[in-house]
Each structure stands twice: as structure tokens, then as C-alpha cells.
């Protein structure tokens, strides 16, 4: 158990609906990452926070995606106007100090019908 | 050219054998290398990290790094059926814009046959 939790674990939604996912890292994780993973592929980087500052966003992160990390603790990832292509596992990872070692939460599996 | 490449497999080995998983990466300046194990439907779980050329051993797992050849491998000794999973190679690719994000290969599916 990495101590990183994600909710919900599964989400089924209809195309066009908005969804929000939450990630709770451990308190030591000053850096937090969001990744997306589709079947048969490795995780792809979406965005990165150092404390509450969002320092980088991937080109994969369209305008329909937004992420926040208020107060540098938990983080949320929102997808607006979901599309079937958004169906994937959304993974959150935390890390601390000078290490690059990232510890993943259990993920949220999104299915867009 | 993909930044991190792995043989997709599937790779099958008999129980008790050595499984060898390979990974190449494109950025010669990369400093940090990781192997994650991922069971079907689960999230990646860290197995090993390696930062210096040579071998690093942890129990039945040995990671090998050769920066000159831009190559990292994972050996699993005395393979067990419980080792059956997808193994992901991850590299800190400096050219991706951040010194902190990881770039993953697509994974190698390993099956250990009883």
C-alpha cells in the first residue's frame, strides 16, 4: 500500500457529462502527478503539481481537462463534456524530496458510454 | 522513434527459470530508471529503481543499467507464477520538458508457467 488513495475507483458516465476524480497522496508527497493509461499502453503523463502549483501540462490535456491541488494536499482532475476516447484508467502518483520515485494510487477507471 | 521501447511480448518462462526483460530509451541525458509491475486491472507497483551503471539486486530481482548503450533490463530469478504480470519500464526523460515526469514503455507481458 503506497498510501495514495483515489476516488472513485470506477466511474461510468454518458458522453457529454462532466466527471471529477480525486487523489489523496500522503502528507510527505509535495509533488503529485496525473497519468492516463489505455489498454495495452503504459501510463501517459497528463499534469504535475509541486505543492499547490501546477508546473506542467501535457499536450494530451485538452481544454476539457482541468486539475487543481488546493493547499498542496489532495488533487482533483475534472473532465468536461466527456468523449468515448476519454475512457481509460486515470492514475495519480506522489513523490517527495529529491527522489524521482513515484508511488501510484489504485487508479480510477472511467468508462464513457 | 518512441522515447522508451520495450518488447511487448508476451514472454513465457517456466516456473523456476530466469525471466529477462529489456528496455531502451532515447534520451542520453536520462538519470533515473524504474521498473514497475502491473497486474491486470491494477495500478503500477514499484519494483526497482536504478540510477548508476551496473547491477542492482533486490531479492529475486536484478536491474541492470548501461547508459552508454541506453539500455536497462530487469532479471527475475526463480520465476514464480505470481510474477505473471505486465512489467513497465519508466525513464526520467529530460527532453520532455520537465526533469520530474516519467515516460513509460508500453510494457512487457510476462507469463510464468507452473
Outline:
The complex is a heterodimer of chains A (113) and B (114). Chain A is mostly beta strands. Chain A contains no helices and 11 strands.
H-E order of chain B: EEEEEEEEEEE
- Count of helical regions of chain A: 0
Would you count the extended β strands of chain A for me?
A: 11
The first-to-last residue Cα distance of chain A is 31 Å
Largest sheet of chain B: 6 strands, mixed
Task: Return the string of H and E elements of chain A.
Answer: EEEEEEEEEEE
Radius of gyration of chain A (Å): 13 Å
Shape of chain B: globular
Please compute the radius of gyration of chain B using only Cα atoms. Answer: 14 Å
Instruction: Let me know the average pLDDT of chain A.
Output: 93
- The percent of residues in helical segments of chain B reads under 10%
Query: Got a strand count of chain B?
Result: 11
Structural class of chain A: mainly beta
The proportion of residues in beta strands of chain A is over 45%
Global morphology of chain A: globular
Low-confidence stretches of chain A: none
Hey, which two chains have the biggest interface?
Answer: A-B, 23 and 27 residues
- Low-pLDDT stretches of chain B are none
Helix tally of chain B equals 0
> Mean pLDDT across all residues of chain B, rounded?
92
How does the SSE layout of this entry go?
The complex is a heterodimer of chains A (113) and B (114).
Chain A: E1 5-7, E2 10-13, E3 19-24, E4 31-37, E5 44-50, E6 53-57, E7 65-68, E8 75-79, E9 88-95, E10 103-104, E11 108-112
Chain B: E1 4-6, E2 11-14, E3 19-25, E4 33-38, E5 45-50, E6 54-58, E7 61-66, E8 71-76, E9 85-92, E10 102-104, E11 108-113
Parallel strand pairs in B: 2-11
Antiparallel strand pairs in B: 1-3, 3-8, 4-5, 4-9, 6-7, 7-8, 9-10, 9-11
Amino acid at each position: 500500500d503506497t498510501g495514495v488513495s483515489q476516488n472513485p475507483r470506477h466511474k461510468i458516465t454518458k458522453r457529454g457529462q462532466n466527471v471529477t476524480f480525486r487523489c489523496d497522496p500522503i502528507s510527505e508527497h509535495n509533488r503529485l502527478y496525473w497519468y492516463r493509461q489505455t489498454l495495452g499502453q503504459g501510463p501517459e503523463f497528463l499534469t504535475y503539481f509541486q505543492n499547490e502549483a501546477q508546473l506542467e501540462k501535457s499536450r494530451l490535456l485538452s481544454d476539457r481537462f482541468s486539475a487543481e491541488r488546493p493547499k498542496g494536499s489532495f488533487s482533483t482532475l475534472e473532465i468536461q463534456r466527456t468523449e468515448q476516447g476519454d475512457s481509460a484508467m486515470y492514475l495519480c502518483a506522489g513523490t517527495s524530496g529529491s527522489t524521482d520515485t513515484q508511488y501510484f494510487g489504485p487508479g480510477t477507471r472511467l468508462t464513457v458510454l | 522513434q518512441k522515447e522508451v521501447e520495450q518488447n511487448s511480448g508476451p514472454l513465457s518462462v517456466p516456473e523456476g527459470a530466469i525471466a529477462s526483460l529489456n528496455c531502451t530509451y532515447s534520451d542520453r541525458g536520462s538519470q533515473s530508471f524504474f521498473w514497475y509491475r502491473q497486474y491486470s486491472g491494477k495500478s503500477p507497483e514499484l519494483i526497482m529503481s536504478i540510477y548508476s551503471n551496473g547491477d542492482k539486486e533486490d531479492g529475486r530481482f536484478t536491474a541492470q543499467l548501461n547508459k552508454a548503450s541506453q539500455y536497462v533490463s530487469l532479471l527475475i530469478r526463480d520465476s514464480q507464477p505470481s510474477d505473471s504480470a505486465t512489467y513497465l519500464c519508466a525513464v526520467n526523460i529530460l527532453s520532455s520538458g520537465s526533469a520530474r515526469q516519467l515516460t513509460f514503455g508500453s510494457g512487457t507481458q510476462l507469463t510464468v508457467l507452473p
